[in-house]
Amino acid sequence: MANVFIFPTTSLILSDLVARFGHTPLSAAMQIREIIQTPGLESPPLQITPEDPKKGLHWAAVEVPSGVRGRMSLYGPLLERAEAAIIVNNPEYSFGCMGCARTNELLVFLVRKKKIPVLDLEYPTSDEEGREFVAAIRRFLDSLPGASA
Amino acid sequence: MTRVRIAQISCGSEYSGVQKEINDAAEAVDAEVFFPDLKLADIQKSFSDFGLDVKSPDLKLSIARAKALAEGRIEADAVFIATCFRCAEAAIVRNELRRFIHENSKLPVVSYSFTERTTSGTLLTRMEALTTIARRRALLAREVQEGLTMGVDSGSSTTKAVVMKDNEIIGTGWLPTTGVIDSAEKAISEALSAAGVSRDEIQAVGTTGYGRFLVGEHLKADLVQEELTVNSKGAVFLADTQHGPSTVIDIGGMDNKAISVLDGIPGTFTMGGICAGASGRFLEMTAKRLGVDITELGPLAMEGLSHKVPMNSYCIVFGTQSLVNALAAGSTPEDVAAAACHSVAEQVFEQQLQEVDIKEPVIMVGGTSLIQGLVRAMGELLQTRITVPPHSQYIGAVGCALLASGFVRRE
Amino acid sequence: MKMYTPRYTGTVTKYVFVESPEMTPSDLAIRAYEISQGVMIKETCFGLQVTGKEEDVNRIIDSLRALDPVHIFVKDRGFPPGDTRRCRANLGGARPGYFGHEFEMGLIRFISGGLTALPSRRPDEVPEPPAPKRREGLAADRLKEIIESQES
């Protein structure tokens, strides 16, 4: 089983397919779960406190907006665990954790910089593209170390 | 109206750790923040109709939420727009949405750019103003002062008191703030004796400014109100422009206000928050360094040419350094005074006036409006003739006395 | 500042989405309740949320997936169901992530189609999906030719 970073990190489709084909999807939900299950100072809704954008300084400089650094503090640990990545390049309507285009640009750049296997895709818009999309993900996941097939 | 419902349009607040601060500030003024509900199809359509092709999905959502509010598809009492400080994409959206809502609805709007250091305290006055506008439209509609009322403005630098009777100012008091209540008492005594009335005769009292809660409690005031709404009322009352649009600029001792007003009610406003180099405090420092009284700084500046001295800093320390350097290099006090006025006006212009729509007449109020050099510099930057109404330094107190007369008949 | 005490520590929550001609969210819920053995099941408009210890949640999900593998989709969720911080009833509107799901659910039939087709062809026999679009611009000299041809 490989830890597969998915982009958008909130994607139902990618999360499902990675798990379905025997690997571990690294999703935003796992990070949110971890922080909301950790005691600390109360900071609803996400339990992200003003300290988290400071942790984000590890990935982005102080001149980068706080929202980018706060989001990076969520994703940074996922990036570090990533052994492969699937990137959908047109996540135009993924909000919330994926709501900031600048964070998303930085995130994709950092994934590419890691030199791990990356599969680039776009959301399918037809039956044929759907078949190709699923087959490509299957093929990519089968090629990773620890694949079950 | 009981609880005011403030629609939040934002990007990044949850991830900056400041959403709780926003909620707390709203809670403190008995308001609640909510997120306008939409469907994905609404978002896609509104975003494409609006025509501002931003890339961040949360900003697309913001655009759709603003459209739903302006078109009345979602009901709210007020709108709070907030995005991350230093994000260019969000700043464009924030400004355009503020303008869009202002032009297409009657909803009061405030916009703010936050960092992870933003606290509920910083947001409180803005939230208070938003809720006042929503809650007290009837009170704010008052255009004529009736009876015998008093207004007290307990500011960060100075305390002002005004006594009004039958739509006329009959007594004023003014002094630097030292102890909040002490200074208020002295300003009140001054105003009462100038008016020739006793305190018992006053039918209603209003307070505003930083010390409004403390002084309000001390005086058992009928109205305790933040300075944004009060100054708007005071400004259009004194300038006799109660109808139609206007812009009110108040460069204060600690922070500055710029307010777009329509029919005497603030529509959008900003409150800074920049640095001391863009405040009245810097002009005080300048006067002191030039060895003149603050009242002489204005006339002195009118004799000088600002462009002869390089001075442009939002920081009071760097600003003072430029001032000292200029004097050492042989610049005249007149030119230095003019440059200081220009520098303050420029900071306010660059950092704050971009956040509101400047509509004529532009009214300058507050103590700094008496410094002619500053008014001239602002007029040059805005390319308009600026109105400074009589008694402009008493603006908050006048607004309070005017609004407090809404409480006279209850007695 | 107020201290925060987390609830549901040590649990996971997973969304189960169903978009099937054969099965409705309530059919799915009935099946889930039958095998829940005390694990929390919450029915929603799109399917279910299952909350409990990870192994229990996975057991239920494996069993539900088997009912209609190509039409049931699963994803982790950070919050437990009904958490007031994310609940529509408290926020006045949907949590932002909801719109992302709405978007992907609009495409899910293509994924179901892809999953259905998988056994009939080996993945390596299916053509590659279109690469993310990078359109070449018109060459400057060609543009010049067009301009000149229209001017004459």
Apparent shape of chain C: elongated
Described by its quaternary structure, the protein is: heterotrimer
Mean of the pLDDT scores of chain C? 89
Q: How many domains of chain C, as an integer? A: 1
Keywords:
heterotrimer; A: 149 residues; alpha/beta; 4-stranded parallel sheet; 6 helices; C: 152 residues; alpha+beta; Alpha-Beta Plaits; 4-stranded antiparallel sheet; 39% helix; 16% strand
Written account of the structure:
The complex is a heterotrimer of chains A (149), B (411) and C (152). Chain A has helices at residues 12-20, 28-36, 51-55, 66-81, 101-113, 127-142, and strands spanning 3-7, 24-26, 40-41, 84-88, 118-121. Chain A is of the alpha/beta class and 149 residues long. Chain A has one domain (3-142). Chain A has a four-stranded parallel β-sheet, sandwiched between helices. In chain A, strand 1 (3-7), helix 1 and strand 2 (24-26) form a beta-alpha-beta unit. The N and C termini of chain A lie close together (11 Å). The mean pLDDT of chain A is 94. Chain B has helices spanning 19-28, 40-50, 57-70, 88-104, 120-135, 137-140, 180-195, 212-219, 227-238, 280-290, 294-303, 316-328, 333-351, 372-382, 395-404; strands spanning 4-11, 31-34, 78-84, 109-114, 148-154, 158-165, 168-176, 204-208, 223-224, 245-251, 256-262, 265-272, 362-365, 386-387. With 411 residues, chain B is α/β, with parallel strands linked by helices. In chain B, 44% of the residues lie in helices and 20% in strands. Chain B folds into three domains: 4-135, Rossmann fold; 148-228 and 395-410, 2-Layer Sandwich (Nucleotidyltransferase, domain 5); 241-388, Nucleotidyltransferase, domain 5, CATH 3.30.420. With 152 residues, chain C is of the alpha+beta class. A four-stranded antiparallel β-sheet of chain C has the order 3-4-2-5, covered by helices on one side. Helix content of chain C is 39%, strand content 16%. Chain C is elongated. Chain C has helices at 25-35, 54-65, 88-91, 96-105, 108-117, 140-151, and strands at residues 3-4, 12-18, 40-43, 47-52, 72-77. Chain C has one domain (12-125): Alpha-Beta Plaits, CATH 3.30.70. The A-B interface holds A 42-46, 48-54, 63-71, 74, 91-102 and B 11-20, 23, 40, 43-44, 54-61, 83-87, 89-90, 114-117. Strand 3 (40-41) of chain A pairs antiparallel with strand 1 of chain C.
